[in-house]
């Protein structure tokens, strides 16, 4: 059974992906929902190179922004792999 099988047939969900870099695959685990038109994704990836790549390969249903998500105050960014 897929996640979209559990949703009402006309429902559309919004997904927020904070730190959208793809590490182990070429599609995120929720991509099936986007493919069948049941979800739209608003993603944030502050690494500009990765953000540009995601915007090229992810296609319709995705909006990826090159921004940090925080409380608006100063903070330290720790980039990890």
Provide structural commentary:
- The protein has 81 residues and is an alpha/beta fold.
- Helices cover 19% and strands 20% of the residues.
- It has two helices and three strands, in the order E-H-E-H-E.
- It has helices at residues 31-35, 48-57; strands at residues 13-18, 39-44, 62-65.
- The chain has a three-stranded parallel sheet.
- Helix 2 (48-57) links the parallel strand 2 and strand 3.
- The radius of gyration is 14 Å and the shape is elongated.
- The N and C termini lie far apart (32 Å).
- 15% of the residues are buried.
- The mean pLDDT is 85.
In percent, how much strand structure appears in the residues?
15-25%
Secondary-structure class: alpha/beta
Side by side, the strands of the main sheet go 1-2-3
Order of helices and strands: EHEHE
Q: How many H/I helices?
A: 2
Total strands: the figure is 3
Radius of gyration: 14 Å
Instruction: Write down the overall geometry.
Output: elongated
Oligomer description: single chain
**Uncertain regions spanning at least 5 consecutive residues:** none
Largest sheet: 3 strands, parallel
- Distance N to C terminus: 32 Å
Percent of residues in helices: 10-25%
Mean pLDDT: 85
